[in-house]
Design a protein that fits this description.
With 497 residues, the protein is an alpha+beta fold. The chain contains 10 helices and 16 strands. The strands form 2 sheets. Strands 7, 8, 9, 10, 11, 12, 13, 14, 15 and 16 form a 10-stranded mixed beta sheet that branches. A hairpin with a 2-residue loop joins strand 7 (276-301) and strand 8 (304-331).
Length: 497
């Protein structure tokens, strides 16, 4: 098996992964406890995940000691519901010919299914690694791939186990009395079981006098390519039984065939986005027409209101924004969907009263100082994004789409005997374009930064014709011009399910 470098565990260097290449090739006995679940409705998916984990470990060349085999040594009670017992599996490992154990349970976070995995090694006083992996439809193989990768990292860190453990584990599986676990580098003498030669797990070269076998109740999923030669078989045949769906390769078929990699390893090497639901959480800064300004005026004659007028429009500022994106990636180089966001801004409001005599001359005027009111603009962006480099950990992209910016009516406290005209809410249409960079540490998660430019259209967006109601004979100061646009810088995290 090839050691595939990945950035999913950022604390591991590429050098340490490379050092694990030879260690990963050696067969390691691994105790896989029975996976558990909290929701009875998750029984089938839990069994499927465990089967995929065991198949992947066999394909990697390891020897799997399942619960049935280990129960014959320590008793079924000792390993029952292992994830819930504080001393399991560390109390089990000294009694069996294995130093590595995998414990997992399926949890529910709302409607989402999450696999919690813990990996143990006998010399560590607690779990060597624990993590949660979201499990969506047809993504169960990613959980198995994570277990495989972490075991490679563990073996690279502590080195291969004693040869005698391999022999003892094989003997235990074949039904022979299990010898005492080997804790040193001296191999234990293990008699060859009587009868026919036992089946061999893929990747293990039999040694004289050392039987190897496939654990009871499991099946092997051999590697479908190591990257040394391109694939020549049809894609459907290559991915069969691997847990990788055909839709995950749409748009990158030729790249996959040229890679010659096992489909599961290809997902971790190329990290294509195809065939996945895309969810993003985003935050950033907006600069441009994000504030609003309004002047409200009334005219009175002998204390009676005779006219009313307002002017309202955008104002330039900068403020924070937050948004979420939901979409789908129909192909490796493309995704599309809708972004819904909140743009923080301010509203500046002035009110004024002109008292006019019977000759039409102003007797008195009162202009209130601007009131600074915090407000929110909502924006909706149907958009499409194209990746210029669709495979690999770094994916530059371009995007384009439409924007609908929405804001509500002004809230004005009216005097007892007067009524200011009130600017209403509006929807300001626009066009958005931009680009950015996506960094994928794994097949189902990415981090990104992007910049966008939005051009606003319509009377409520213009700096030439501010919204004005009524005929007003009295002079009013002009509003400052704007560029009728907004520039935004955003960053966030992307999940692909």
């Amino acid at each position: 098996m090839r050691c595939i470098p990945t950035t999913l565990t950022l604390s591991l260097s590429l050098g340490s992964l490379a050092c694990g290449l030879n260690a990963a090739r050696a067969a390691e006995p691994v105790f896989v406890s029975t996976f558990t679940h909290a929701d009875p409705g998750d029984t089938d998916v839990t069994a499927k995940v465990q089967a995929l984990v065991e198949e992947r470990l066999l394909a990697d060349g390891h020897i799997v000691l399942d619960a049935e085999v280990v129960a014959g040594v320590v008793g079924a009670e000792a390993i029952a519901d292992c994830p819930a017992k504080p001393d399991c599996p560390l109390s089990i490992l000294p009694k069996i010919p294995a130093r590595i154990a995998v414990v997992a349970r399926m949890d529910r976070l709302g409607e989402a299914l999450v696999g919690h995995m813990e990996l143990y090694e006998a010399s560590y006083p607690e779990a060597f690694k624990a993590l949660d992996v979201p499990i969506a439809g047809d993504n169960e193989h990613l959980f198995a791939a994570e277990v495989s990768r972490i075991i490679q990292t563990l073996v690279a860190s502590v080195g291969p186990g004693p040869e005698g453990d391999r022999a003892a584990a094989a003997s235990l599986i074949s039904g022979e009395p299990a010898p005492a676990p080997v804790s040193s580098s001296t191999p234990a003498a293990v008699p060859k079981p009587a009868g026919a030669q036992a089946a061999q797990p893929p990747g293990i070269t039999p040694e004289p006098g050392v039987p190897t076998t496939v654990p009871r109740g499991t099946s092997s999923a051999p590697k479908r390519g190591d990257g040394t030669t391109p694939h020549t078989a049809p894609i459907e045949e290559i991915i069969e039984g691997t847990g990788v769906a055909r839709r995950h390769l749409v748009g990158s078929e030729q790249h996959f065939l040229r890679s010659g990699l096992d489909p599961r390893d290809y997902l971790y090497r190329a990290m294509p986005h195809a065939g996945r639901l895309v969810l993003e959480l985003r935050g950033g800064l907006g600069v441009g027409d994000i504030d609003r300004i309004a002047n409200l005026r009334v005219e009175t004659r002998d204390g009676v209101q005779t006219n009313g007028w307002y002017r309202e429009g955008p104002s330039v500022a900068q403020n924070q924004r937050y948004s979420g994106f939901l979409g789908y990636a129909p192909a490796t180089m493309l995704d599309l969907g809708a972004l819904f966001g909140l743009q923080y801004g301010q509203r500046f409001l002035t009110t004024g009263i002109y008292a006019v005599d019977q000759n039409g001359e102003i007797q008195d005027s009162a202009i209130e100082q601007p009131a600074d009111i915090q407000a929110l603009n909502l924006y909706l962006q149907p958009r499409v994004r194209a990746y210029l480099v669709p495979v690999g950990p770094a994916k530059p992209f371009l995007l384009t789409g439409a924007e609908l910016r929405m804001f509500g009516p002004y809230q004005v406290q009216q005097p007892d005997t007067l009524s200011y005209p009130v600017p209403g809410g509006a929807i300001v249409p626009g066009w958005v374009g931009g680009g950015g960079m996506m960094i994928d540490p794994g097949p189902i998660v990415g981090f990104f930064a992007e910049g966008t430019y939005t051009r606003h259209f319509g009377r409520r967006a213009t700096h030439l014709e501010y919204q004005q109601v009524g005929q007003w004979p009295w002079p009013e100061g002009a509003f400052a011009e704007t560029a009728r646009s907004t520039v935004a810088i955003n960053g966030g995290i992307q999940f692909r399910l």
